[in-house]
Amino acid sequence: MPRLSLTNLPVTPAVDPGSLSIGVVHLGLGAFHRAHQAVVTERAAVATGNTRWGISGVSQRSAAVREQLAPQDGLYAVLERGLGDPTVQVIGSIREVLTAPESPEAVVARIADPAVSVVTLTVTEKGYRAKGGGLDLDDPEIQADLTGRPPRTVVGQLAAALARREAPLTIVSCDNLVANGPFLRRLVAEYFDARGKTPDVFAASRFPASMVDRIVPATTEDDRAEAARLLGVRDEAVVVAEPFLQWIIEDEFAGDRPAWERGGAVLTADVAPWEQAKLRILNATHSMLAYLGALRGYETIAEAVRDDELAALAHTLITEDVIPTLTPPDGLDLTAYGATVLERFANPALKHRTTQVAMDGSVKLPVRLLGTLQDRLTAGAEPTTLTLAVAAWMVYVHTTPALDDPQAPALKSALANATTPTAVVDALLALPTIFPATLQSAPALRDLLITQVAALTPRNQ
Ligand code: CS2
């Protein structure tokens, strides 16, 4: 079967890819970006007829993404799996693919290009290389970038490019972090401080916050086969996604930008209530189902949420522990939102693996669960479902041999001699990179966690 490319186009992209020039750089060219910002950017180009917002996509790690996309002229399909038959759409908005470790200089040059006025990022929580809310200056890669080599870290890439630019830049973080824009601004500022020089263009550059939402599981062989069947050509870069897509962006730009609102995004003055609702309801429940589900032997989130006990716990987490901490964004009914989230998780066509959502817990937990936990304890509540989610993470970390987490060595060495539930809780709760001091010293919390870890620990452990 021939492979998808500009000369092998079974489904014409909504915009002529050849007409697009590069105006946006995206850092973190994974499946999520391809199913989200790249789609909205293409829809905006179709709605406006403006061809200056093609995307230069940067893969931060391996060359695999380039090997998938380059032979296909940057084209790929989004395979949408909802309750009906799957559909495919070919997306043409990615016009260049760079691999940062191979060509770090080209990445900086592209961001510094005057035709580029916007950078978007999906580099996951760990990609920010933060510690204690600021830049981790002990990180060896950050240290190496600070010596002046062509930068390899995201913060180093942005800083080096800003230092070369005359026009200010808008940098839109699209990761699941609290106040992601201001957070990234702080990291870049700290990087400049460590270098001893901040370029003038930094003050006028903008870091709007944004909230992104779409469930995008890792692509499987089945998905590739399904896409090939629907397209009649092979697509090595196909991504699979649910029909739902949401992008809320703080309307705070230093210069021109794609008319993303014409592609379905919402531009607003205040993203915070949206972001809190999404992180604390969707992502928190996702993580809880991933840990409890994996411990019960479920492969996918859909299987986990079809377990009546887990579904009831997810509902309780949302309604009793999370919603009391939230201020609803304008026009959003939080209870209805929570119910929709659980329906989306139950989509049986999405094979979203519990182990995929479970990875990187050390950087996800603080954002998704621990802020809410802190708020509930301060309010004098006993948030037993929230703590159960934390306990499930603890047991998962303790019982998973090859843990996929940036702090895996530290977690495993903390647990080296932990054979009882009390020892497991004490070892993990003591880690200051995860638990703030206020939670470490909350006595009721420790006792509750010990009981719950004991109840969740498999008998042969
Ligand atoms: C998930 C998210 O992998 C995870 O940790 O919770 O990727 C989730 O699917 C997205 O945030 C949905 O928008």
Report on the structure:
InterPro entries: 6-PGluconate_DH-like_C_sf, 6PGD_dom2, Mannitol_DH, Mannitol_DH/Oxidoreductase, Mannitol_DH_C, Mannitol_DH_N, NAD(P)-bd_dom_sf. With 461 residues, the protein is α/β, with parallel strands linked by helices. It has two domains: 252 residues, NAD(P)-binding Rossmann-like Domain (Rossmann fold), CATH 3.40.50; 184 residues, N-(1-d-carboxylethyl)-l-norvaline Dehydrogenase, domain 2 (Orthogonal Bundle). It has 20 helices and 13 strands. Strands 5-2-1-6-9 form a five-stranded parallel sheet, with helices on both faces. Strands 4-3-11 form a three-stranded mixed sheet, sandwiched between helices. The chain has a three-stranded mixed sheet with strand order 10-12-13, covered by helices on one side. A hairpin with a 6-residue loop joins β3 and β4. α6 packs across α7, α10 runs antiparallel to α12 and α15 packs antiparallel against α16. The longest helix is centred in the middle third of the chain and has 24 residues. It is globular. The termini are far apart. The mean pLDDT is 97. The structure holds D-mannonic acid (CS2). The site of D-mannonic acid has 9 residues, from α10 and α14.
